[in-house]
Amino acid sequence: MKKRLFLGLLLAFGLFLGSCANISSPPPDFPTPPQTVTTPPSFLEAYYAPAQNLTGSALKAALHNIIKNHTIVPYGTSGSGVWGALMDLDEDPNNTNNVIYVYSRRSEPKNRTQYNYPSDMDAWNREHTFPKSRSFNNSKWPAYTDLHHMRPEDRTINSSRGDRDFKSGGEPHSESPNIKVAPGTWEPPDEIKGDIARGMFYMAVRYEGTSANEPDLEIVNRATSSGEPNIGYLNDLLAWHDLDPVDDRERLRNEKIYQRYQGNRNPFVDHPEWVRLIWTEE
Ligand SMILES: [Ca+2]
Ligand SMILES: [Ca+2]
């Protein structure tokens, strides 16, 4: 009798251990969960409280006050400053040794930087998606290193983008056919169009010319030229914002910039509906 009880207990214990093992060790080919981020709604409500129920220029001014005075990331050398931050922010979710280039969407080793490999023409460097020639070409100025618009890109593709305005249309880029190029304009692939547009909306609100070393950046619906603090084209950027809505990857990037680097957020990633409360097609 006792022996049977003992065997029964042993069997039950064995089944218990077996079920524990099933819970704690997933099958070997279990995919890595995608990186996601959830911000408590109560936090965002408090962060954006001064902007609630506003529209137009009042909303723009309230958002400016919320996101100004961010922690300035140094431009940096080697893996530090902006280099190091981009290795984190634009990391390939399927290969953590790599970054994804912003326009060409290529996945390349993080350490394949122009800094580390000066003669490698396909190495990456730091692309200012709002061109620095638009009135902030000084590495000490906040806009020059602002991670909300900084991205990794192949150095020759970066240089062919130059200071072109964003606009749909043109011929496939010889090195990366998903990019379209026309005289003076640049169209990135669909999957990143909205991210880029929201970066431009952020820059227009963050930089209002209210502090030293800060131009008043704005979005216009025309071709821009070197030295002026503007980027085109507004109507295309609004269309791109609708075409490529905010996803978890973009939310994660925004969250990392807020928590790890700058202490400020892109309001248009958190509240995409605010774009059209400030801007309308021209
Ligand atoms: Ca996107
Ligand atoms: Ca502005």
Structure write-up:
- The protein is of the alpha+beta class.
- It has one domain (41-278).
- The protein contains ten helices and eleven strands.
- The strands form four sheets. A four-stranded mixed sheet has the order 6-9-8-7, with no helix packed on it. It has a three-stranded antiparallel sheet with strand order 1-2-3.
- A hairpin with a 7-residue loop joins β7 and β8.
- α6 (190-206) packs across α7.
- The radius of gyration is 23 Å and the shape is globular.
- The structure holds calcium ion (CA) (2 copies).
- One calcium ion is lined by residues 204, 207-208, 216-218.
Summarize this, please?
This protein has ten helices and eleven strands.
What layout of secondary structure does this protein have?
Elements lengths: L1 H23 L16 H7 L8 H12 L13 H9 L1 E2 L2 E6 L6 E3 L14 E5 L21 E5 H7 L3 E2 L4 E2 L7 E3 L2 E3 L2 H17 L11 E2 L10 E2 L2 H10 L4 H15 L4 H4 L4 H4 L4
Parallel strand pairs: 6-9, 10-11
Antiparallel strand pairs: 1-2, 2-3, 4-5, 7-8, 8-9
Helix pairs in contact: 6-7
The structure holds calcium ion (2 copies).
The site of one calcium ion (CA) has 7 residues, from α6.
Task: Describe the strand arrangement of the main beta sheet, using strand numbers.
Answer: 6-9-8-7
Mean pLDDT: 89
What percentage of amino acids are in beta strands?
5-15%
Radius of gyration in whole Å, from Cα? 23 Å
| Straight-line N-to-C gap | 89 Å
Order of helices and strands: HHHHEEEEEHEEEEHEEHHHH
The level of helicity is 25-40%
Shape: globular
Oligomer: single chain
Biggest sheet layout: 4 strands, mixed
Give the cofactors and ligands: calcium ion
| Number of helical regions | 10
Uncertain segments are 5-34
The total domain count is 1
* Class derived from helix and strand content: alpha+beta
Extended strand count: 11
